[in-house]
Amino acid sequence: MTRDWRTNFDCSLYLVTDSGMCSAMGLERLVTEAVAGGVTMVQLREKHASTREFLDKARALQAILQPQGVPLLINDRVDIALAVNAAGVHLGQSDMPCHVARQLLGPGAIIGLTVDTDEQAVATESMDADYLGVGPVFETSTKPDHSPVLGVDGFTRRRALSSRPCVAIGSVRAEHAHTLLDAGADGLAVVSALCAAGDPRQAARELREAVESFRG
Amino acid sequence: MTRDWRTNFDCSLYLVTDSGMCSAMGLERLVTEAVAGGVTMVQLREKHASTREFLDKARALQAILQPQGVPLLINDRVDIALAVNAAGVHLGQSDMPCHVARQLLGPGAIIGLTVDTDEQAVATESMDADYLGVGPVFETSTKPDHSPVLGVDGFTRRRALSSRPCVAIGSVRAEHAHTLLDAGADGLAVVSALCAAGDPRQAARELREAVESFRG
To answer: What is the DSSP string of A41-103?
Structure first.
């Protein structure tokens, strides 16, 4: 992992994949369309795949994303990230600790962390992490084991506890963009808004435009 | 992974852990006792643990095994192996391909492969693997998704297809040692014979003695 991905990454519109949700369209087409519509970063998240299936999907996405300079992050699995030379990993609280992942991935990798509580948000201040995933902002069915819904007020409070870039996640739609960016979000992380969209390119375009119009 | 583990490893008595089966005794005590009884190699196999739980167990076993020079192999997870500086990995057919794992782990790591068919045994000849796990020799309940039982004749046939060291696995007990070694096994891989033993030190001693007495 020689390239420095972390200095200038753009988490404005962050697609987190759900293979089950996009099975009709297929993961590769979903990602291709979503990036064409304006997605700036992609996380491959596979909770039930074997290592080999996960690796094959990561390779396929890397072949799409690398030529476009869009960072691919791997959920949980540092070995998959290393094998496909991904931009980095996204780690939950029961995944590898941040400093261990950093040691394996090197100084140029992007490492994102999910924070499930205010205490965890504070704790990440001393970690070598590049962004935080903060949520679920709204009620969501894509992560059945999620922590309590934050709402916009809860997001605002938790976001203020961290100096890291924060992406809002959890049933985020284009109509929430201004509210969440106003609450301090640096980007929107979306699952179903793109994975379940009939036209993910158009859906991504609307989301990205909502973000850009806030920034003026 | 700087140390060269693969040149001189001893697979005579290979403990493959099952955390559920040894929950009363605890994994660390099991491994300590089994190694005191004569286990020469240990594989940490965790099919339901989170990455962090897996890592914590790997660290605990490495702290026991490293001072004794007993190689610790990690089932499936190359990232865990890298994080704890394990001796290597054991890979099934749906895990990372051998050459990818070799690239990540380096030339000194031990890489073992499970072969489920004769064709796979032949195919490993062109892979940079250090040993094969061949089984299940007998009916087993510790790996519910296992391939058809080989029996001793099947083991003899499959073992002869490979020039690599082969360990026999699948309900292997001390009383099978001479038959299996005579059939070409280079070692015995055991799960329940040690993980479910009341006295794993004594059980390991009997298994090891059975191996050594064959070798005369």
So the answer is: EEEE--SS--HHHHHHHHHHHHHHHGGGTPPEEEES-HHHHHHHT-SEEEE-TTS--HHHHHH
Q: How far is B96 from chain A (nearest CA, A)?
A: 5
| Residue A100 forms contact with B (CB below 8 Å) | yes
Total count of domains within chain B: 1
ipTM of the complex: 0.95
Q: How far is B18 from chain A (nearest CA, A)?
A: 19
* pLDDT above 70 as % of chain A: 98
CATH code: domain of residue A189: 3.20.20.70
Instruction: Give residue A39's pLDDT band: very low, low, confident or very high (50, 70, 90).
Output: very high
DSSP B147: P
Q: Was B40 annotated as part of a binding site? A: no
Is residue B199 scored above 90 in pLDDT? Answer: yes
Q: Which domain holds residue A94?
A: 13-215
What distance in Å separates the CA atoms of residue A8 and residue A110, rounded to the nearest whole number?
A: 10
Chain B residues close to A79, C-beta within 8 Å: 77-79, 82, 96, 104
Q: d(Cα A77, Cα A54) in Å, to the nearest integer?
A: 9
The answer to whether the Cβ–Cβ distance between A104 and B79 falls below 8 Å is yes
Rounded to the nearest angstrom, the minimum Cα separation between A78 and chain B is: 6
> Would an 8 Å CB–CB cutoff place B77 in contact with chain A?
yes
Whether A6 is covered by a domain: the verdict is no
What are B102-161's pLDDT values in tens digits?
A: 999 999 999 999 999 999 999 999 999 999 999 999 998 777 677 899 999 999 999 999
Interface probe with A: pick from B1, B48, B51, most Cβ of A within 10 Å: B51
**Which pair of tokens denotes residue B150?**
């080989």
Q: Is residue A117 part of a domain?
A: yes
Could you identify the residue written with the tokens 């643990």? B49
Mean pLDDT of A149-153: 96
- Residue appearing with tokens 């492969």: B113
Task: Say whether residue A128 is in contact with chain B using an 8 A CB cutoff.
Answer: no
Torsion angle of the four alpha carbons A95, A96, A102, A105, in this order, in degrees rounded to the nearest 10:
-80
